[in-house]
Every structure is written in C-alpha cells, then in structure tokens.
Amino acid sequence: MMNFVDPTTREKKRMYIGYLTKKPIPRIDDKFSCYNGTQKSNFSLTPWDKFHMNYSQEEINELSNYLQNIFGYKTIVKKNSDIHNENKGESYIIDNSDCQSFLPVYFNSNEFSKIRRFQDKLWGLLCVSLEFKMNKETDDMYYILPFYKSLDQEDSKINVDWYYINYILQEKANPDEITVADWIATVDYHLQNNQKDIISPTKSFEDNYNAVRDTFEILKKDPSFKEEYKTRNISQENKSYISDTLHNTYFRTLYNRRLYILKDFHEELTMDDEFTVKNYNKDEEPYQISYKNYIMKNYSDIMENYEYKYPQFSLVCGKVFSLLKNFDYHSEKELEVQRRQKENKSKKEGTGFKAWFIPELCHIFHLPTYWLKFLQYIPILTYKLKAFCYISEFRYVIGIKPLSIINLTYAATSKNSDIIMGNRHEQLEMLGDTILKYLTTIYYYNRYPEKDESFLTSIRMKNVSNENLIQLTNYYQWNRFFLQKKFSINYFHPPNISIIEGMRIRECSNAMHENKPIADFFESIIGACFIEGKTIAQGIQICQLFLSRSKLIIPIPFNYKPTIDEYVREPGYDYDEIVKKICKFLNHTYSKDSTLYTVLHLISLATPTMRREYQRLEYLGDAVIDLITINYFFNRFKGANPKELTQFKHLSVQNQVFADIIYNFGLIECLPFPPSTKKEIDKFIEMKSVHKDFPFHKNIADLFEVFVGAIHIDNGYQFEKTNEELVDFLTKHIFQHSAQNQSIERFEVINEIIEILSVIGRKYSHLEGFLRNPKSVYQ
C-alpha cells in the first residue's frame, strides 16, 4: 500500500493492509478507488496464503489434504442454492463449483489471540473507547492485519507484521513509557543548555520523539535531574516553545486509558489547584476538589501508591479525540463549510469546554505517521470490502456466472452512495434501459405474431414500467443489495456490527416515484450483464439469461417472419432492383427471400392487415436503432455522463433525420406507394425543392425504421450482425453529426421539460385518468 522506513531498524519496507475473514473475499481484478477528503488512492485485492509463504510445496499439499479432511474442504466453499444448472452446455449458470476454492489460513491459538486483541485495540483507538470489545459471536470477523515486505531484500515475501501487533498498540501508550511531563522536562533541559536545534517545532514528530527518548533515557538515571524537576517551575517562554513541539500530539491517560489530543498548557494551574465538580444528581451539592485528589478519588485502585515526579508542572489542555471522527471523507467545499461553522461556534461560545490533565499521568501516544495514513483508510476499506463480499453474495443469488464483482458493484451503487461509481451506475442504467426495450420488443414481437403495434407497445410499456421493475426487484428481495446511502463516518460501525444495514434502502413504500432508483438498479444490472460479454452477441445472451431469471421474459425461439398470402406487384416497378438498392444503401446482404420484399408489398397494399404488419416492423426497427445508437455513444464516449448520452441519442434518432436520409438517397421515388400516397409525397418533394428545411411527413421517417426491422429479421434477430451492417452507415450519416452538433444545448431544454412533466405526473398521479407512467407523457 505505501512505503516507509522502519523507525527502529531503519529498514525500507512496504506496508499492506490485510483482512482475515471467515468468508472468501471475491477476487477483484480491477483496481478500485477510495477517497480521504479530496485525496484519491487506488487499491487492489490480492489473496495471501500463509502456507505458501512459509512451507514447501510438499508440505502445502499434505496440509491441504489434512484440512480438507478435518474441515470439509468442499463444504466450506459450497453454498445452498435453489439455482440449478439449467443449461450445462453453456458456462453462464453459477453452480456450487463456481465458488472460490481456497486454503484456509491457519493461525495457532497464540497467534489468533494476539490478532483478536489487536482488533480490540485498533478499533478502540479509532472509536475513542480503548477498552472496546468486539462481538465475537457474530460471523463477520473481518480482522485487520498489518503486513509488510522488505524493500532492502530482493527475495523478501509479504508477511504479517507481528512486531506491530505485539507492541505498537499495547497497553502502554509507547514502549518507552514517555509521559507528557517527561517530554516537558527533557525539552526544557535542552532549552536551558541552548540546544533548541535538537528538538524543534519545525521537525517531524518522529524526529522529536526519538530525540526526547534518547535524551530522557540518560536523564532519568541522573538523581540531580529528578530533584531539580520536583520543584522546578517552567518559564512561560519555555512553556510556549514546548507547547509548539507537542501541539496536536496524541496522549493516553494512565487511569482511564482514553485517547486525547493535546492543545495547550495552562499558565498557572497545577495538580494541587481546585475546581468545582457539578453532580448530575440535583440533590447533591457541587463541591471543590483538587485535580490530584479527584483522580485519586475516582481511580484509587490504579493511583493508590503512585508517587508524583513533577508536582509543580502546569496542567495541559486536552480534547477527547477519535481518530475515526477526525478522518475527513468530504469534498473541499464541504470541508470549508465545516471550518466556517466551527469558527462561528467558537466565537459564540468563547473558549468552549476544556479538560485539564496532570501531564505526568498522560502517556505520549507514539503512532508513526505512516500508520496514521494507514488508519485513516481502515473505515472506507472495511466498508468497501464488506460491500464487495455483499455483492458477491448478490451475484450468487442472481446466478449469472459472467457477471464480475466490480461491474455488479457499479450497478448496485447509486450516485448518492458514491459519486464516481454512481456515475458509472447511471451509464449502465441508460444502457440497460435501451437493452431492456430491445429484448422485450423482439420477445413480444415473436410471442404475439397476430397482435398489432398498439398492443405490443402497451404490453411492453406495462412490463418495463418503473412500477413493474420495482415489484420484481422487491419480490426477489434484490433491493436489499442496492447501496443507496453515501459512506459516512457518522453511521460507520466496526466489523461484527453490520455496516451494510445502514446502507440499504428503506422498505419500499407505495409511492412509485420514491422507489424509482430501484427500477434504475434493475436496468443497471442489465447494462452490467451486457458489458460483460466478450462479444455483443454474448452480452445480449447474458442479458436474456438475466431477464429469464427475473421471469420478465421466458425462453422462446425468435424466428417469426412476416408474410402475406398473395403478392401483388405494382406495375412499373422492378422489385428485385429496389430491394438490391435498399440492401446496398444499408450495407445489407441481399437474398431472394429477404423480408424487404414483404416490406415493398406492405407499402403498395394499404389494407388494415398490411398496415398492421407494417407498424409491427416499425415497432421492431425503432428498438434496434435505439440500441445501435446507445451502444455506439456508450463506447465512443466512455467518460460521457448519462445526460450527455441522452442528448446524443435525442439528436440521432429524430424522425426528420431519418426522413432526410430516405430522401437524399433517392429511395422515395422508387418505392411502390399507392397512388393516393404517391400524390401526397410528390407535394412534399415539391415543397422540399423550394424550402430545404421543409419537414417531411412522419410516415417517410417510419420507412427507415421499417427497413431496419426487416433487415434484423433477415439476420435471424442477431443484433451483432445488424449492428455490424448498420453502424458504419449511421456513424457516417448521423452519429458524427450528432456528436459535433453545436445546437446540443437545446436538448437540455427538452430534458428540463421532461423533468417538469415527471414532477407533475408524480404530483397528480392520484387523479383518475392521469397517465401513471411518465414515459407515455414524454412520447
């Protein structure tokens, strides 16, 4: 994780953070980021095997077999599940064998006792109470271990830092037992001898600590030094200098083991001065007592035989301190607001509450700088790790093997929870929404071959509505895996007290709009499934698997092809030549049984049956074009936010854009329209020749969607093939212009109107007759 110089041995080392758990931690191939304030750090997860570090391969194999027999190796890695391997020919379904097989890391009872004690001390340090006790009955574990690797030795291996576990967070604040009073006396000694350069406020704490330690080790053996400082009063000038060397230093009291941060020295107060004790019990009167006697009264078992060495030293001011609360996980703006609030509060309250301490009862808390950096990442890393384990469980519940933990984590992390991952969540949600539209479109198109476009649109909208997706997500209890709250120290709990519980969204209410993020969560999972595919075809297949798992669609063959009973050719038209021209126009492979022939007959015959089939093809082509468009911009602009992707889509899939393409390529004149339709189109062409921006009728734009629908059927509903044929054409004639279009700002107005309509829809959704689904209002 970070490089440092061992303060004792001066050896260069690299420090790592280790976690010991009862559950196998999922392997995350990609690096992940954590923020401390505005500072970003990247981390990666790597498995560590104690035996591979210390044993030969023969010993490892022997021990592995032993552990398998004793612990039940396979029973450790298996989980009970109602998910069955429905398709053994494909490797998409998770079965028990997909769980990580791992060699349990064995620690002997003595080692494990030290590790457990280290957890108590570590979390006690972070959470103020140094006698913090972990709940050992829970199954979480997540024990934190310091690791190191020597950089001075070429063949050094990563090992547990037992020195740190045994000594750094022991009962005493520091191995040398240096108190604040010892520090004061030592620095004052140097000042009397004009040796300011030895211990200075400009030096690091480690350098000053080592200097004080070395000097005090000599001075404490000198009887004259002890006698002098029994009665010595430190001058105000020296007090100020010494205070600067100790400012914001941590110390731990001898009697209650609490951690404080040192702020200042009192000018006059000593341990024999009195203060007023106000009892919480109103029946008892306040009383006066000296600081020394107060400690004796409340901690007599510890202080009974204690002999003071520095009775004349002034008291020091300390503030109750929690490292956990001190670490900042905020933006610069948030930090600035907090600073101003503290300043205003300080001005209103004057000096505020201060606690005064006898300096020789305060042990300097020697915590190296590199460990302070390490500690500040423990809460967020522990949260991230538990989140990864939690999402690993979610992956198993869904039962789709190709889904990686990192992409599923993106899908399950809202923008409120994590700005960086949440932005990716919104991108996946937009991609998933379009894929959901595409897959349900071809599903209903094939399942209901006799139904018209109005029925297909209605049933699709009903099943992909936010309300239905919310119901599905809640029914399968997937909503409990949706991380919607931002990580905050305020509700962070150490391991063995659930972290994730505070992060889960509340149980769903009846108000659909309050739970819309859950519907977005469902769609983002679809997006995550799609990008896991090594090819577009595989991505679509994984998405289909997820939708069939959610029972939104059921597996059916996609092989419906529209036909008509009797082909009637309009005189004067060469149908073969027209179909070949359309194929060349759209980069499609020509065949004599192409659905495009059916399209030409549908155009020429204006009967209700023909019109129904024509609109069904338009319904299909619209979904195909949407997915080609979103897939292009999703991969072309990987850093684009969802709003920008939406704007690009709006610019690309306009009816007028499609109509202009049909007109500019000269397809209108060669299509076999009925005489009435032909006459109407001729008027549009005449107006277009006079006014270049004159808009065509929507029916002309619909032709483009019908052609795409027919091509997709020719390709056997293989989206990858259709995309390959059309994407270059669309890129050249639409997408490039959309990306460069300078009028993109006007689509921000459209988005704002959509948001307003959504608000109105939510506000008046209780009124009878009002459309409950905002999507229908947008259309």
UniProtKB/TrEMBL annotation:
Span of domain RNase III: 391-534, 579-716
Q: Which InterPro entries match?
A: RNase_III_dom, RNase_III_sf
Hydrolase as a keyword of this entry, yes or no, is yes
SMART domains in alphabetical order: RIBOc
User: What terms describe the molecular function in GO for this protein?
Assistant: ribonuclease III activity
Q: Which Pfam families match?
A: Ribonuclease_3
Spell out the PROSITE patterns in the cross-references.
RNASE_3_1, RNASE_3_2
Sorted UniProt keywords:
Hydrolase
- The domain of life for this entry's organism is Eukaryota
Annotated coiled-coil positions are: none
The UniProt entry, under Gene3D superfamilies, shows:
paz domain, Ribonuclease III domain
Stored SUPFAM superfamilies:
RNase III domain-like
Can you cite a GO biological process for this protein? RNA processing
What name does UniProt use for this protein?
Answer: Ribonuclease III
**Native species:** Piromyces finnis
